[in-house]
Amino acid sequence: MSHAAAFAPPVAPNGGRLLLGLDKAELTATLADIGLEPFRAKQVWHWLYYRGVTDFADMTTLAKTVRARLAETFSIVRPDVMRHQQSTDGTQKFLLKMADGQAVETVHIPESDRGTLCVSSQVGCTLTCRFCHTGTQPLVRNLGAVEIVGQILHARDVLGEWPKPGEQQRMGEDRSLTNIVMMGMGEPLYNYDEVAKALRIVMDGEGIAISKRRITLSTSGVVPLINRLGAELGVNLAVSLHAVTDELRDHIMPINRKYPIADLLEACRTYPAANNARRITFEYVMLKGINDTPAEARRLVNLLRPIPSKINLIPFNPWPGSEYEVSDEATIRTFAEILEQAGYPTPIRKTRGDDILAACGQLRSDSERKRRTLA
Ligand code: SAH
Ligand code: SF4
To answer: Do 230 and 260 reside in the same domain of the chain?
Structure first.
């Protein structure tokens, strides 16, 4: 199984070094390079992640000469927006272009009690799950922390989340962006270091301050990194299970050949950040005639017994050329009832942003096709 190319820090459009995406220690060291003391790094952090400024000139606690110096040396630009679509249900989808021309998608889903941002971790995905459109994208590379954080900064810009001068930052349900799910393009655990760095920036109490309890990382099952994720970051875990036998899971999710179901579930059972109040979400895509029988639901009940679990049934989203169909509504309901009766909360995921293809598994940048057309 090949891994994606690493993120190579690009030169920013103004020729400056990138300042976003550095952790606090790196920011302090980078600013020390031009003679700024650690308390300056603290101030810059505040402007970048608490106030969300995009121009050094607005960092008014710094002397004008310092601001000018920063602007000559560094860049704090956001990703370029290639496309912005808004669904009739309020869901927004952004196609964001990175410095090397590659693009990723980010989706904001507003609900009555929360607003969730679905964030990408890679351009494309090296895994090739048979039901997933992202896995068919030919070009793959890891995103850098700057590009992962950039998706969140951009969403906060659009949603008007930054406090205005003199205002305190809104918290909890007063925000439009309350939750983050690493469920966009890519396998986040195949880009562990950059994802972890980005999430630490987003969780930092002196900045965006989104709690680990409001962040969920979804993995197809990179077993060796699951416990590390729980111990180091403590975020919620979601696991794309989708099948209850190795035979079927080998077929629809090739990663299962490396990390079979028993190993995956053992890593979940010992996940440090889960308990009955913070359950692991098992995602299960409903594929007609493939994985949707009552017998499979009962087997799922047995498999998950040792784990604090909830199950998210996802009606399959077809895409052009996909080989599967979505299970019938009645089949999905029966499947859900078996799990509910066994004590597992089992919401059936509503399709959101249908009209702009914002749903899971449909995220696939078309920049590659466009580039070919231009060539
Ligand atoms: N790579 C990670 C995270 C991104 S995918 C993972 O696989 O978990 C987010 C969720 O959407 C996963 O559960 C994935 O299996 C599911 N998904 C992918 N394609 C889908 C499709 N066409 N219809 C419904 N769900 C899909
Ligand atoms: Fe990659 Fe997840 Fe899609 Fe599988 S389901 S191809 S791991 S993005």
So the answer is: yes
C-beta 4 within 6 A of ligand 2: no
Pick the residue whose CA is nearest to atom 8 on ligand 1. 219
Q: What is the pLDDT of residue 370?
A: 47
Can you give the pLDDT at residue 6?
84
Q: How far does the centroid of ligand 2 lie from the alpha carbon of residue 141, in Å?
A: 14
Q: Where are the beta strands (DSSP E) in 111-178?
A: 115-118, 122-123, 141-142
Q: Are residues 228 and 284 in the same domain?
A: yes
Examine the domain organization and report whether 232 and 337 are in the same domain.
yes
Q: Would you say the CB of residue 132 lies under 6 angstroms from ligand 2?
A: yes
Split at pLDDT 50, 70, 90, the class of 222 is: very high
187 pocket-lining for ligand 2 (C-beta < 6 Å): yes
Are 148 and 57 within one domain?
no
Q: Report the Cα–Cα distance between both ends of the chain, in Å, rounded.
A: 31
The pLDDT tens digits of the residues spanning 190-217 come to: 999 999 999 999 999 999 999 999 999 9
pLDDT interval class at 150 (50, 70, 90)? very high
Q: How many domains does the chain have?
A: 2
Q: Are residues 105 and 35 in the same domain?
A: no
What is the residue range of 241's domain? Answer: 80-356
Residue owning the nearest CA to atom 9 of ligand 1: 183
Q: Is 317 helix (H, G, I), strand (E, B) or coil?
A: coil
